[in-house]
Design goal:
By secondary structure, the protein is of the alpha/beta class. It folds into four domains: about 160 residues, MoaB/Mog-like domain (Molybdenum Cofactor Biosythetic Enzyme, Chain A), CATH 3.40.980; about 50 residues, Molybdopterin biosynthesis moea protein, domain 2 (Alpha-Beta Complex), CATH 3.90.105.10; about 90 residues, Molybdopterin biosynthesis moeA protein, domain 3 (Beta Complex); about 80 residues, MoeA, C-terminal, domain IV (Beta-clip, Beta Barrel), CATH 2.40.340. Helices cover about 15% and strands about 30% of the residues. It is built from six helices and 26 strands. The strands form seven sheets. A six-stranded mixed sheet has the order 7-4-6-5-9-8, with no helix packed on it. It has a six-stranded mixed sheet with strand order 16-13-17-21-20-18, with helices on both faces. The longest helix is centred in the last third of the chain and has 19 residues. The protein is elongated, with a radius of gyration of 31 Å. The chain starts with a helix and ends with a strand.
Length: about 400
Amino acid sequence: MIDIEEAYDILFDNVRPGPVVEVELRDALHHTLAEPIRCDVDYPPFDRSTMDGYAVRSTDVRDSPVLLTLVGQIPAGTTWSGSLGEGEAVQINTGAPLPDGADAVVRVEDTQLVEDGARVRIETAVAPGRFITRRGTYIAEGQTVIEPGTRLTATAMAAAATAGESRPRVFERPTVAILGTGDELIAINKRPQGAQIRNSNQYLLEALITSADATPKLLGVARDDRDALREKITGALQADAVCITGGISMGAFDFVPEVLEMCGATMRFRKLTIKPGRPTLFATGPDGTPVFALPGNPGGAFVAFELIVRPALAIMEGRPAAAPKTITAALCGTLAPTSARRTYIPARVTEETRDHRVEAGATQRTVTPLSWHGSGDSIGMTSATALVVRPPNAAQVADGEDVAIHVLEAS
């Protein structure tokens, strides 16, 4: 067995970013940008009004209230060809270009039309530049809008569109083959008989892989037979990465490590000093394909995915190599001493007032361990939003003490 820090060193040495592709912007959501996006114009591309109102010369309204002659109108999306003279005003909408000669905008609520709309009464003075966004305020032509390595969110997509980038270059989303193993697994629409269990891991991994911005590829279940397993694994290695559950412990029918080597894979590590998730295997196929063999128990598979597979997929998608980060939270309840392995406990994080710990009325992050019966209990993990991270051989933790937590990404 190796500890998790050594596992990350091995993982980061053996996982590489995938290929770079050009995609339509609408298809780029949650991809990682491979090349910078630069703006092809100043933005805004003109001086524009930030309010509905009247474009004026600030010197004309210095001694407000004052009457100005209304000489034009500028709806958004149009320009005005004239030049504003002394004592004149132009009606202007939010987002419309400022006319020549104007240096400020008066809000419509600070005005009143008179003489059947021929003139406008300005009720308040405005300083030069008031309610105007100058050309290039947000970004100048040629400047970088989004740096490489950025995961494209909805707001980043809007920035890319503003910059005129219709086909960004991004890292290709990896396809991850999912393979369950075990004679005991049955479809979820079947009622278990005898020693059978439903194949919940398929749905767990499919959801987790999707939440990690990768594409799951379902390969079904391989029975506890070397030849059947070898056929399935050979096909799985055609994907960009492979996730196998079960068949990796010390039992007489745990053939996955042996069959992986038969298929030309190189073992990188086979066990971790963590609980749950100890029998977690990482290998690379003949062409370098990352292979993750996770415990058959759903709790162990979940923890191993969050600690090992998710960071690896992030690398494949073009993001920096990084171990999951922990933060601290105040414990609600107590935790027993731990064994010689680092322990991960499903929990729920909240923000609440704890007057005995902090100033009255203030809030702090708290974490409550779930009622969970171990790695085979998928139901007890249902409402988990974090994992409490306990070091090896740690003493009991009392209510209110700080503990380390790993906040789970939304899935």
